[in-house]
Design a protein that fits this description.
The protein is 41% helix and 24% strand. With 197 residues, the chain is α+β, with helices and mostly antiparallel strands. The strands form 2 sheets. Strands 5-2-3-6-7 form a 5-stranded mixed β-sheet. Strands 1-4 form a two-stranded antiparallel sheet. Helix 2 crosses helix 3 and helix 5 crosses helix 6. It is elongated and about 65 Å long.
């Protein structure tokens, strides 16, 4: 199944999810009949409804159409360090961090709360950090018809600190650029300063 297919529909069979969680727990050696674990399959299945609530969501709608600008907007807009959490599609473990966006408006502006709503839709689905940065950049560029977009995403991954070598404190960064911030080195340098690089 492709990523596109997994991000366009919501699972609705919670009972099947509960059975699958119970089977998984038993397969990895947990005593699924232990009193402290009896409710775990139900809890995990219902948590999935929240963790993957962005499946089928429309990030452009969450961002809104923007508000028209009267005249020419003088410069870039920065929305910095919006906290987020997501689930890495490789191990289904969480990653979290902050997202900063700089965009150069043409005719439309969006509110800070709109950016938060858009990020929540895109983060609430199985993700890869790099794709999340790209999807945010594409949504802002397309929805607001921005002249340029630069997205910086930082993440701490549970697959780094909760498994394997258990490396605590490592942070990964991803950068996505569109429009003039992808093609014009001077504009990109200005955006990098605004975003804190």
């Amino acid at each position: 199944m492709t990523i596109e297919a997994t991000t366009t529909s919501r699972p609705t069979d919670v009972l099947a999810a509960e059975r699958a969680v119970r089977d998984y727990m038993a397969a990895v050696g947990l005593d699924v009949d232990h009193p402290t674990l009896l409710d775990t399959p139900r809890r995990v299945a219902h948590a999935g409804l929240d963790l993957y609530s962005g499946l089928g969501g429309d990030p452009a709608k969450a961002l809104g159409g923007g508000e028209p600008i009267e005249g020419v907007y003088p410069g870039p807009v920065s929305v910095l360090e919006v906290p987020y959490s997501s689930i890495c599609e490789h191990h289904l473990l969480p990653f979290k961090g902050v997202i900063s966006v700089v965009y150069l408006p043409d005719r439309m502006l969006a509110g800070i709360g709109d950016f938060d709503a858009m990020i929540r839709v895109l983060a609430a689905r199985p993700q890869m950090q790099e794709r999340l940065a790209d999807e945010i950049a594409d949504t802002v560029a397309t929805t607001l018809d921005a002249k340029g977009v630069l997205v910086l995403l930082t993440a701490e991954h549970a697959c780094m600190w909760a498994r394997g070598e258990r490396t605590v404190g490592a942070t990964a960064r991803s950068l996505a650029a569109r429009g003039v911030y992808d093609t014009d080195l001077a504009a990109r340098a200005e955006a990098r300063i605004l975003i804190g690089l």
